[in-house]
Structures are given as C-alpha cells and as structure tokens.
Amino acid sequence: MTLTAAQTVAALATIAGSDNVVGDPAKMGAWLYEPRKRFHQSAAAVVTPPTVEAVQAVLRWANENGTGIIAQGGNTGLVGAQVPLSGNEVILSLARLDRIRSIDTAAGVMTAEAGVILENAHKAAEAEGSMFPLWLASQGSARIGGVLSSNAGGVNVLAYGNARELTMGVEAVLADGRLYRGLNALKKDNTGYDLKDLLVGAEGTLGIITAASLKIYPLPEDYETALVNIASPEAALELFQLMRQRAGARLNAFELIPWIGLDIQMRHGMLDRDPTASASPWYALIELSRMAGTAPGALQSSLEAAFDAALISDATIAESLADRTRMWAFREQMSECQSREGASIKHDVSVPIAAVPALIGQGVTAAETLVPGIRPVPFGHMGDGNIHFNFSMPVGADPKAFMAEFDEAVHAVIYDVVLKLGGSVSAEHGIGQLKVDLLRQVKDPVALDMMRAIKTALDPKGILNPGKMLRSVP
Ligand SMILES: Cc1cc2nc3c(=O)[nH]c(=O)nc-3n(C[C@H](O)[C@H](O)[C@H](O)COP(=O)(O)OP(=O)(O)OC[C@H]3O[C@@H](n4cnc5c(N)ncnc54)[C@H](O)[C@@H]3O)c2cc1C
C-alpha cells in the first residue's frame, strides 16, 4: 500500500523528530530544483536526520514501506540524480551530518561526515597544513557524500585522481538500515571485494554514505600558473606531453580553453581584465605545485622549452594571487558564460588523452555540418582526456527552436565520435536521470547485467534512488 504524503510526514516526524521533516511543498524548493532547472518533480517529504542512527531508522522504515529514498548533499549534481522522479519519494538530506570526525596528517587521512561542505573539508585540512585536493566550481555547496556518490573529478584529477581515488573507506547505511562500517585508513587491504569502490560513484542507488575516510596531502608551498597561447588541440597535446615529462606529478592542471570563451566572457563583463597574453585560437591553463624546499621557476623554464620547440606562441605567468585567481575564474566561468549567449547543447565526455584532438576535430566538423553557424565551445580537463564538448546556438537563432530541432541530433553525432574513439559518454557528471537511456544503449550488456545484479542484491525492493542510473530494477 502506498502511503499518502501526510502519512509519510507523520511517520518521519516520529522517527527523526518533527523539526527534521519538511512536508509543506511550498517550503521544499531548495531541495527540488537542481542547478540547471531541467528536472522538476515534487516529493512526499524532505527529512534531514541529525544522526547516523536516525538515517538507519529512516531506511528501515522506508524499506518496510517500499518508499523511495533519494539521498541529497548540496544539490549541485548536473544529471538530475538528486531530485525526485515520481513525486512519491522522500529526499534524505545529509546536511546535518557535517562534522569532521578526525584528521591524521601523519597518516594522510581525514574522516569527514557526508554533509560536510567540500570547501569546509578543504579548510579543515589546510588548518592542519594539509590539502584535500578535490576542487570543483561547486565546492561552496557540494557535500562530501554527494561528491563521492557522483565520483566527482574537478581540476586536480591529473595529479591526485578523482573522488574514488581519494577515498580510503566509507561508512554507509544499507537499504535495510544496517550500517556498513567501512571507514579505514589502510593503504593495503586485500580481504575481498572493494565495497568502497561500489558505493563511490553509485549515485545513491546502493547505500547512503554517512562518512568517509579521505586522503589528504602535504600542502604545497606555492603554485606556478600560466595561460599559454596555442595554435591547435594537436599542439596542446604535444605541450601536455612536454609538461608531463618536465614536471611529472607536480603538474596539477592542464585545462584547454578556446578563444570563443574569452570573447564571450569579455563581451559580457565577466572578467575585470583580459587574463591572456594576446589573442590566440586556443589557450592552455597550466598549473604546477611547488613543495617546500624546492626552487621556483619550473613552469617558466618549461614554457621556454615549449617556445623553442614552437609549441606555443605566447604566454602569461601569474605574478600574484590576483593573477592566478583571474586565470582560474576564466576557466571556471566557461560553463556559465555560455548561458549569456542563448541556448547551448552540452556533453561531458572523455576519450584517451591522445584522441582529444581527433575528438574535437571530428566533433566540430560533424556538428557544423548538421547545424551551419553552430558555435563550438569545447573546453576542460585536457590532461584527463575529459572535454566539456559544448555548442552555443548560432548568433540570432531562436533558443527554443534551436534546442527542439538540434539537441538530439547533435548529441547523436558527438556520442558517435566519442564511442568510435573508445571514449565514455559520461566522464564526470554521472548518469542520474539524464543519461539512463543512453547508458542502456552504449554500455556493454554484460557490464549492465553485473550492475543490475549488484543493485538487486543490495537493494532488493528498489527503494534507493529509484529509476536513476538503472531503470529496470525489480
Ligand atoms: C558549477 C558546477 C561545477 C561543477 N564542476 C564539476 C567538476 O568540475 N567536476 C565534476 O566531477 N563535477 C562537477 N560538478 C558536478 C558535481 O558532480 C557536483 O557538484 C558534486 O559532486 C555533487 O555534490 P552534491 O553534494 O551537490 O551532490 P548532490 O547533487 O546532492 O547529489 C549527487 C548524487 O549523489 C547522491 N548522494 C548525495 N549524497 C549522498 C550520500 N550521502 N550517500 C549516497 N548518495 C548521495 C545523490 O542521490 C545524487 O545521486 C559541478 C557542478 C556545478 C553546479
């Protein structure tokens, strides 16, 4: 029997306390609308349990009643995974579990609860002379549980890896309310399946993460940052290889940005001044970290070598924190700036790094053939082979007509190029509700069967984030 919303609210108030339940639809907006406002649906209730035990009690109740539970962190996910699908689900916000439980700098481990805001995790690590290196534009709102559950990447993946690589262990509540006590600080643990790796990146479909032990690193003394003019993605690839050879693990970031990004941001007053040395078809934002006791200048000498090899034509090196901040703002505003130019069609894709130039070349040709005047804006984590392959509508086009006519067709040609190059149709943002059908079309059928079997074993009643990632759940 499906419970009414009023029955759900009453039951949750008994379990978690009435102050921790929102049942009035007019007060649920902050939990229901995701950043791009593409997906919207009501919820039966929002519950914000104050303790791990309360999370367990909510799950036990939901499992008995067959109520869908959607875990939510900062609600910044970009694929609609954290918002309701049917309207009968309960949103379980982890926001109140926001303690840093411990920091052990000698062991390089920080244990944080799921509701800790990413930026606060950064600050906590920095206060102890360490760094938690997962940096995203949404870090002021995104929370540890959400970041892990979407296996987020960001700008430091090159040097430190994505969320999965930065997680040593998790504590999680299973669908039936049992607690998996998987927090550990072991670099080596060969005692069977890696359950942590199942829960990280599961988008709340296998369990509710309540805390995680995370890798922290010595804080670099300084950063060397530059914006470099390059002629083409092919030159960017060569430059990337040169930088890796010279800087090794100190190469933190290698981000590719096309000229149109600068043009849009300058025209719309998004930058107080041009952060680049001069006009160029492409820019690379390159950052090296410098540890205590090492001499500065590694970036400068590498760029001189690149200049001598005719890989770059010009560059500007940040001379102050303000310069560095402006360079990063230029990069971080790339996604947002497109909204100032009307509608855009977006793809979060990855290919082997060596195939990035082919991805951009073939993808641009395919889209321009389909839609004359379409404006390609491919940018992102070149060093990870992860390009946010976006397209702005032609100048003067009608946004609605552009999306209605070309959204699906452009997706089809871009995903075709990506798959032919051995790539992935979701590099960072996940599946959620946005890419459920696409996943079914492109994922290896054996892999899909294994995923369904795991889902059925851990969540036999299908209460955890129902309908997301894998739709055909019993
Ligand atoms: C401006 C902007 C920039 C971004 N940049 C990047 C980027 O560079 N790289 C990148 O990878 N991503 C990026 N993202 C998306 C990124 O995935 C999210 O910002 C972040 O990782 C999600 O954290 P959140 O707390 O907001 O999770 P939510 O959006 O609340 O949830 C995301 C998913 O995790 C699940 N979930 C949340 N908490 C838990 C939990 N405790 N247990 C189990 N499941 C849970 C939800 O059900 C949902 O499936 C960006 C987003 C924005 C808005």
UniProtKB/TrEMBL annotation:
Cofactor(s) recorded for this entry are: FAD
**Coiled-coil positions:** none
| InterPro entries linked to this entry | FAD-bd_oxidored_4_C, FAD-bd_PCMH, FAD-bd_PCMH-like_sf, FAD-bd_PCMH_sub1, FAD-bd_PCMH_sub2, FAD-linked_Oxase-like_C, FAD-oxidored/transferase_4, Oxid_FAD_bind_N
Q: Which domain of life is it from?
A: Bacteria
Does the keyword field hold Flavoprotein? yes
An example Gene Ontology molecular-function term: FAD binding
Q: What Gene Ontology terms for biological process does this UniProt record contain? A: respiratory electron transport chain
Which Pfam families does the record match to this protein? FAD-oxidase_C, FAD_binding_4
Tell me which SUPFAM superfamilies the record gives. Answer: FAD-binding/transporter-associated domain-like (SSF56176), FAD-linked oxidases, C-terminal domain (SSF55103)
Residues covered by the FAD-binding PCMH-type domain: 39-219
Q: Which UniProt keywords apply?
A: FAD, Flavoprotein
Record family assignment: Belongs to the FAD-binding oxidoreductase/transferase type 4 family.
Protein name, UniProt field:
4-phosphoerythronate dehydrogenase (FAD-dependent)
Species lineage, top-down?
Bacteria, Pseudomonadati, Pseudomonadota, Alphaproteobacteria, Hyphomicrobiales
